[in-house]
Amino acid sequence: MDLKSDIANKLKTKWIGKQIYYYEETLSTNLDCKTLAQNDALEGTVVIADYQTKGRGRRGRDWESPKGTSISFSILLRPRLNPDKASMLTLLQAMAVVKAIKEVCNLDAKIKWPNDVVVNDKKVCGILTEMHMETDSVFCVIVGTGINVNQECISEELKQKATSLRIERGNEISRADILERVLYWFEYYYDSFLKIGDLSTLQTTYNDMLVSMNREVKVLDPMGSFQGIAKGINEKGELIVQLKNGSLQYVYAGEVSVRGLYGYV
Ligand code: BTN
Fold first, then answer.
1. If pLDDT is split at 50, 70 and 90, which confidence band does 261 have?
2. What's the CA angle centered on 113, arms 43 and 196, to 5 degrees?
């Protein structure tokens, strides 16, 4: 069975993925999703690709998605939110991916704030959330996700910091099962987030999934880097970092990058 029919048969969501577009090859599912949004596609539309020729990562980087082994997909959302809240959707998706990996693979996945999911301290998933505006309100938000599922090996230059679920688990994993669980949990977290408009009810669950919780981190901010202990996120999704003098810094996801002191997480 192809991935599209497999996922459509398995889907247990109420509204996400009622409309699915599947491409063997495309430039980027985030770009496809944007075009669909401009053509009145339904909220919750999901675009899935087996292979992207111009997959995009954060900060203008490329994202590689090998044929047949990875999952690349984007979810179209039309939230009535303040634009400054859109970055919280990345955190919700990271939670959904962690849950999916635990349920399908029984692996202890963790979140590297704000947009990566790691297994055994190596990246298995990246999330790129893009917001599009119309005059002064949000037109749509696209949550794009790439997951390394069945790659049997990772390129030499990425191998120190990236892995796949198959490598960590030791057996082939169903991409449709992972995708079904991610969409299920994303809908669940998104619906509960919208009820309040912030992360206060999800904060504890999120912090339990945070790989750097109570660990020393370095915040690479274009305005100046600093070190401290990660204390979890607040209800706005900012990372709370405690400095040596005890004061707290609240880090907004924007252009900042957070590293462990001794490597990637
Ligand atoms: C990152 O870690 O830098 C984010 C990577 C996001 C990759 C996904 S794959 C599906 C969607 N389409 C894209 O072009 N990018 C995102």
1. low
2. 45
Ligand 1 center to 244 CA (angstroms) = 35
Beta-sheet strand order (sheet of 226-233): 248-251, 239-242, 226-233, 216-220, 257-260
Q: Is the CB of 53 under 6 A from ligand 1?
A: no
Q: Is 72 in the pocket of ligand 1 (CB under 6 A)?
A: yes
Q: Give residue-wise pLDDT tens across range 162-197.
A: 999 999 999 999 999 999 999 999 999 999 999 999
Say how many CA atoms lie within 13 Å of 24 toward its Cβ.
Answer: 1
User: What atom in ligand 1 is closest to the CA of residue 57?
Assistant: 3
User: Is there an atom of ligand 1 within 6 Å of 52 CB?
Assistant: yes
Among the listed residues 66, 54, 51, the one whose alpha carbon sits nearest the alpha carbon of residue 166: 66
Q: Coil, helix or strand for 93?
A: helix
249, with CB counted inside 10 A (0-12, 13-18, 19+), is middle
The model's pTM is: 0.97
234 Cα to the center of ligand 1, angstroms? 25
pLDDT band at 150 (very low <50, low <70, confident <90, very high): very high
CA–CA separation, 174 vs 58, rounded Å?
A: 26
66 lines ligand 1 (CB under 6 A): no
Average pLDDT, the chain: 94
Task: State in Å: Cα 200 to ligand 1 middle.
Answer: 27
